[in-house]
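Exercise 7. Given the encoded structure of a 253-residue chain, write a plausible sequence.
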């Protein structure tokens, strides 16, 4: 160990921040479902570190709302209520348009190059129906737009809100694929058409940001965010299958 924020693994240092990111990713992916216990010993074994960076990571995740501490049970994955889940969407609906407006005022040419490149890639992947690549590109786009706001606190909050929304409104992978629209308009919405539309909206937003039109950027971000969040509102908030389950895996999935 070197201090109380790093561990040594195979001759390299692993920070508590890296351990925190790994645990958070596993929570968001559902490896640790809501309500499951997070014991320091098992987490240290899973990630190949000592218990010290794990303990620090759990404190950080508790401050972010991903972890809660229960009497007699210790650290557990949080179980957000439906009201808390709805509040997340309300906060995002307020802050994402603000971030877009600030980006129009403070963006750099480097930000614009990245945003335009992501729009091109997103539009291409959407047209090809490569949905597994569309979502990560969308996350990258939103993080870059948040950074372009020139407000590190706002950018960090927006990224955290997106992570928590994805986690709280996660659904069973088998239910994530929307069936294609049947001939004559029957069935659910066409995912390819929705993805193409979504990237067209992002392209228009980047144009407004590039022009420095803060009000237009805010309006476009509001419309885009509302459409995206309406999809989350239709999803069920998952519940834990076991209040005190413990993940005992020793390796990364």
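Solution.
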């Amino acid at each position: 160990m070197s201090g109380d924020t790093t561990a040594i693994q195979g001759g390299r240092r692993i920070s508590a921040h890296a351990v925190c990111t790994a645990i958070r990713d596993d929570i968001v992916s559902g490896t640790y479902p809501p309500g499951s216990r997070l014991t320091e010993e098992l987490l240290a074994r899973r990630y190949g570190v000592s218990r010290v960076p794990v303990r620090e990571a759990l404190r950080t995740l508790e401050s972010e709302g991903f972890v809660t501490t229960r009497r007699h049970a210790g650290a557990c994955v949080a179980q957000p209520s439906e009201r808390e889940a709805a509040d997340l969407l309300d906060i995002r609906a307020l802050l994402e348009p603000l971030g877009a407006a600030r980006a129009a005022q403070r963006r750099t040419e480097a930000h614009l190059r990245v945003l335009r490149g992501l729009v091109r890639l997103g539009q291409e992947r959407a047209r090809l129906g490569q949905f597994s690549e569309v979502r990560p590109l969308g996350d990258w786009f939103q993080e870059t737009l948040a950074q372009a706001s020139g407000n590190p606190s706002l950018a960090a909050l927006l990224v955290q809100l997106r992570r928590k929304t994805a986690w709280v409104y996660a659904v069973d992978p088998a239910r994530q694929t929307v069936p294609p629209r049947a001939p004559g308009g029957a069935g659910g919405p066409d995912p390819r058409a929705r993805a193409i539309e979504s990237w067209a909206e992002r392209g228009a937003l980047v144009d407004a940001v590039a022009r420095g039109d803060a009000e237009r950027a805010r309006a476009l971000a509001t419309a885009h965010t509302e459409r995206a969040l309406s999809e989350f509102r239709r999803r069920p908030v998952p519940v834990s299958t076991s209040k005190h389950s413990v993940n005992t895996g020793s390796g990364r999935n």
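Remark. The chain has nine helices and four strands. Students should compare their own answers with the one above.
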